[in-house]
Amino acid sequence: MKLIKNLPRRLSKSGRLESWALFKCSDCLQEVERYLSSGKIAKSCGCVQYKLSAKAITKHGGKGTRLYHIWTQIKQRIFNPKNCNYPNYGGRGITICPEWANDYIVFRDWALNNGYLENLQINRIENEDNYEPSNCNFVTAKENARNRRGQKIKNIEIANEIRVLYNTGNYTQKELAIKYGVHQGNISLIINNTIWKN
Description:
Layout: E1 2-11, E2 17-24, E3 31-35, H1 36-41, H2 47-57, H3 66-79, H4 98-102, H5 104-113, E4 121-124, E5 136-139, H6 141-146, H7 156-167, H8 173-180, H9 184-191
Antiparallel strand pairs: 1-2, 2-3, 4-5
């Protein structure tokens, strides 16, 4: 800031006389009164910091949206060893392309141009591959449940076979889960016609 003129000394709250001056902000050209010592070292009246803060807040306008949450959760699963899902993602080598990892706007634009809707979830087409444009799409929760790692039930015929075997009374859900190599929860969803509906 540029010193314009010295002002009369003033009493501080503690009762000491302090030197004051009138300065001109070199950024916004506003005249401001400051302690003489602090005005000499200040780079602006505070307008620069305000502009930087405002820019950070409005950088992409996505914070708080569902899509922004999806993006942050992907990064948590991949980069944060304390995240409960890390062992199934970052812990086994799944990663995210640098373009998405470093820039929410790039991820957002890809999502909006590739079928994102509020009721859909992001899905990796090949479960052993990474989060990147060529391996991701948006699907319903039910479709996503079918695509999970270790999911061996790939069509309605196998799902119907599980229902038939369960209805014979000869198999428990746990036994069917072992037989088909899936989680017991998936067997329950099939039996209750929640996924792979008839």
